[in-house]
Every structure is written in C-alpha cells, then in structure tokens.
Amino acid sequence: MERRPLIAGNWKMHLTSDQAVALARTIADAASDVADRDVMIAPAFTSLPAVAEVLADSPVLLGAQNVAWEEQGAFTGEVSPVMLREFGVSLVIVGHSERRHIFGETDDLINRRLCGALRFGLVPILCVGETLEDREDGITMQILEQQVRSGLAGVEAGDMARVVIAYEPVWAIGTGKTASKEQAQEAHRFIRSVVGNLYEKKLAQQVRILYGGSVKPENVDSLMAEPDIDGALVGGAALKSESFARIIHFI
C-alpha cells in the first residue's frame, strides 16, 4: 500500500522569532516543487504566529512540539489544541524522548495528549523508542510495544488514519549515531505489527511510521528506501536550510 512520505523538522528550543521566519522562508522555497510528499516544521511556540504567516501560501505544514489535552483551564505552562489551531497548526509531536526522559512525561500523560490532539482535529505524531540500556538488555521490542499500546489506548480504529508514529531510538538522538537501515526497518516493521494486532493489518498498512535519530542528507536516501520507513523526524539537520532541503528531496 502506498503511503505518502512525511518529512518533519523539529526545531526544539532553537531560534528567535526572526530567525525562525528566515529559516521558514528558505524551507518554503525549497519545498515549493515537492508534490509527492508532505513537509512539516515545528518551531517553538513563541514563533508559531510569525512562521504561520510565512507558510500561508506554502505546501509546508505547520507543526507544534507538544500539546495539552484540554481546550482551556488551569494548566500553567501548557498550550491547548485550540490555541494551536488558531495559528494553523495541523500536526503535533507527542511523547518525544526529551519529554519522556528530561521532563518525566509518563505513558498515561502522553496518551492524554494524543487523544486531546485527535479530539480537536490535530494529527498527533506519537514518538516511541528505546534507550541504549534497553537495546543492550535486549528489550527493545518490549519497550516499543509498551509505548505503542499505551500511547494508542482508547484510540478508535476510525481515528488511526490521522495518527503518525515516529520511531526514535533515544541513543541516536543528537548523538550523531544513527540506527542502521536494517535496525530501523526491523523496529518499523515491528511497530506496524503491533498496530496490526491492536486494530487490523489493513489499517496498519495505512499508518505512516517515521524514523527519527540523527537523520542527515548522507543517510536519508538509504533509510527511505526501506519498505516500512515512511518519512523522517529531523532534529539538528532541520535547523540548516541546505541540509533540510536535501532531506526533503530524498531520492
């Protein structure tokens, strides 16, 4: 089954609003000739309004790096899905390893964020992945299954078409290390099988699964050639217009 690739740039806590606007302009230009794949950038919350203006007439989608699960309320420091939609955000990253391991977000909290995103019409990108210790202990697949099952708890089959999953081995994020294409494919295939067991195989074949973990111009082509890798969640390389443009135009 043909799945439309998605290249997503996660800018993390980088760039002032002016810097974000400048980078967004160059990416919008670079993506202007791309018709067979989706491109998304997720700037910091403070830059969303300005970047939204730049992307207004562009095929590049606007994403956010996290999302709350309620429309409004006493949730200091959170940003609601309604607030994000006001600026044209269409996708949100949930469960990124930095949220899990630095800020202590639990599987239950991540599931609430994901379900909140769906409830308010946003596309969640659910991040899952093992630590180096998990991989060395031989429990990578158990960790992935637990995170996928927990993250998708309560999600109806009819909503799964709007869910994207990103496999990001924690040991490869920002380290310069990349999972080999064989390691990445094995994990992606396993994640798809978990989704198939939760729902049905036909639906699992429709779900896009991205690879995230030191994606660079030098490795994107080989990663994207694997049958179960449907795109990339890009960190550091997404902050450089030239490298991200090359990743967008993977072969």
TrEMBL record:
Top EC class, one word: isomerase
Residue positions binding substrate: 10-12, 174, 214, 235-236
EC identifiers of the protein: 5.3.1.1
Functional note: Involved in the gluconeogenesis. Catalyzes stereospecifically the conversion of dihydroxyacetone phosphate (DHAP) to D-glyceraldehyde-3-phosphate (G3P).
Keyword hit for Cell inner membrane: no
Pathway: Carbohydrate biosynthesis; gluconeogenesis; Carbohydrate degradation; glycolysis; D-glyceraldehyde 3-phosphate from glycerone phosphate: step 1/1
Protein name (Swiss-Prot/TrEMBL): Triosephosphate isomerase
Entry GO terms, CC: cytosol
GO molecular function (one): triose-phosphate isomerase activity
InterPro entries cross-referenced by the UniProt entry: Aldolase_TIM, TIM_sf, TrioseP_Isoase_bac/euk, Triosephosphate_isomerase, Triosephosphate_isomerase_AS
GO BP: gluconeogenesis; glyceraldehyde-3-phosphate biosynthetic process; glycerol catabolic process; glycolytic process
Entry keyword set: Cytoplasm, Gluconeogenesis, Glycolysis, Isomerase
Lineage, highest ranks first: Bacteria, Pseudomonadati, Thermodesulfobacteriota, Desulfobulbia, Desulfobulbales
Main subcellular localisation: cytoplasm
Location within or outside the cell: Cytoplasm
Active site (record annotation): 96 (electrophile), 168 (proton acceptor)
Family: Belongs to the triosephosphate isomerase family.
Subunit note: Homodimer.
